[in-house]
Structure formats: structure tokens, C-alpha cells
Amino acid sequence: MFIRYQVKREKSPFQQVWDEVFTPVWFKLLKGPQDIFIQRTAKIFSARYERWEYNALVARYRGMGIMADDAMNDKDMIVERALDIIPEDIRIQRYRRMMRGAVLAGRKLHLLLELQNYDPMVPYMAPYIEEAKFQMQEEQELLAFHPWDRRLYVSGLIASLGRLWNRGVLRELERNSNQEVITSNQPSLITYGYSDS
């Protein structure tokens, strides 16, 4: 008993003509070059689109009078830390550029052409971002503190590592009042660091 896939089947005359005549023509003229043509055109169009997108972004930054690093999200952990360690004059220049861009965008205006002759893609914050990454990594290793643990959008003074000053003071007051209560052995009500004795 033979299994079907082990049987060598003879090709029909039509299959022989097809394999010898039409298949090489199909792969030589249509299938192969078509794939190469599609790949080449896709690369060309994607490169052209990327170049157009970059030029449009540069024109937009120049029209608003801002740099590319000014457009970074300042609520990001690394950018926030970099803005803390950046020098005061660079921080002021960044703020003024951003405010000028916001005013121009609100008035639907552009910067004068004489003032648009600059390169907005200069990464002036790059060394400070690298330093911020290093500081955050050091905090994670030495203090077991991750930036995700910090508090966002709080009122009051924020101390280092995201702790609130007022709560730290209140906790210290609670600790001191607890020690007084323990030493005096009197029942007391402790509310935000004040003992009722």
C-alpha cells in the first residue's frame, strides 16, 4: 500500500509548458521587480515624508520662536529634574521663548523673518537631562526611592524627594507629642501634633 505523498506523479503537458515557459516570465518580469519596485518606492516616499515632517517641524519652531527642547513636556520626571538643575539664565531664556511662542500662537502670528534665522534643533538641555538621569539612578540605588513615589500637583512647599514640608513638620510634632505622652503616662488626644494633656 502506497501513501499518496510518496508517489511521484507525472506532470501533465499543460503543467510542463506552464513551468517551463510562463513561470520564469512571471517571476522575471512581474513578481520580482514588482516587489523590489514597491520596496524602493516605499523607502523613497517614507524618506521624503520624514524629511518633509522634519522641515515642517523646524518651520513651526522657527515661526513660534522656540527651540525643540522648549517643547518637551515639563511634567516628565526627567525633564522636571533637568529643569531643577539647569542654570538660572538658561531657565529664564527658555521661559521667555515659551511665553513668546504662546503669545504668537494665541494671536495667530509668526515671528519676523529676520528673527527666524536660527537652528531650533540644538539640544541645549541634553547635558542637564543626562545629569538628571544620573541623579535619579543614584537615588534609586542608594535611597530606594523611585520618582514614581513622589507626589504630584500638591499645595505647599515640596522638600527633596517629593516630601511635603508641612506634613514632615506635623509628623515631627506627632513624634514629639507621643514621646511626651509615653513619658508622662497620661491619656491624651493627639491631633496633628498637639497633645491634649
TrEMBL record:
UniProt lineage: Eukaryota, Sar, Alveolata, Perkinsozoa, Perkinsea
Keyword presence, Membrane: yes
Membrane topology of the entry: Peripheral membrane protein
Pfam families, sorted: UCR_14kD (PF02271)
The protein, known as: Ubiquinol-cytochrome C reductase complex 14kD subunit, putative
Compartmental location: Mitochondrion inner membrane
Family: Belongs to the UQCRB/QCR7 family.
Chief location category: mitochondrion
Keyword entries, A-Z: Electron transport, Membrane, Mitochondrion, Mitochondrion inner membrane, Respiratory chain, Transport
Listed PANTHER family: CYTOCHROME B-C1 COMPLEX SUBUNIT 7 (PTHR12022:SF0), UBIQUINOL-CYTOCHROME C REDUCTASE COMPLEX 14 KD PROTEIN (PTHR12022)
